[in-house]
Amino acid sequence: MKVLVIGAAGKSGAALVNEALAAGHKVTVFVRTAALYKKVNVRVVAGDVLDADAVDVAVAGQDAVIDALGGKTPWKVTTMETNAAHNIVDAMRRNGVRRLLKISVVGAGESVKNAGFFNEHVLMRTFLRGLLVDKAGMEAEIESSNLDWTLVRPPMLTDGEKTGIARVLSTEGGEKAHKIARADLAAFMVKELESGRYVRQAVTVTTT
């Protein structure tokens, strides 16, 4: 499958690129500066995700898109991810690409029920407040599209080794999500890319 990874220069994006390559997919990465991206065996497209024309060039010819973008200032209210999602969805529509997977976060939408006490009552009300506003806008852009989307909401991400454990939590059972390694998140998302089990769903995914 031809897969575009947006946000490939970040830690989660890098894990997704590694996992997709290991699974035999043909990977294109969309990054700001091509000269700074050193991964081999990938096609590199440089551009700004807020530039609709650049996104269109990157999306053309793909079978699926995985969006690993994340804001760098979670305490500030911005619309970066919302605007990026708008451009990605539009480019996918224009190019006839239907499959979209996007990393969101625990605390967005109904997944607030999966947030631990400290996350819900401290972080989400202070440090993560701006991020959650943008995540809500981004999710609305994607959910209102006619694409075959999956929103994946992880808790705290770590750089730990892959455990092979990525559990999908119900928002009704009171289960709490605490942390997951980026490698496990990437493995879950590439598997979901291939299976389509959670198409048009937003899922909380965690290890512990």
UniProtKB/TrEMBL annotation:
Molecular-function GO terms, alphabetical: biliverdin reductase [NAD(P)H] activity; riboflavin reductase (NADPH) activity
Chain ranges of the NAD(P)-binding domain: 7-194
Name of the protein this chain belongs to: Flavin reductase
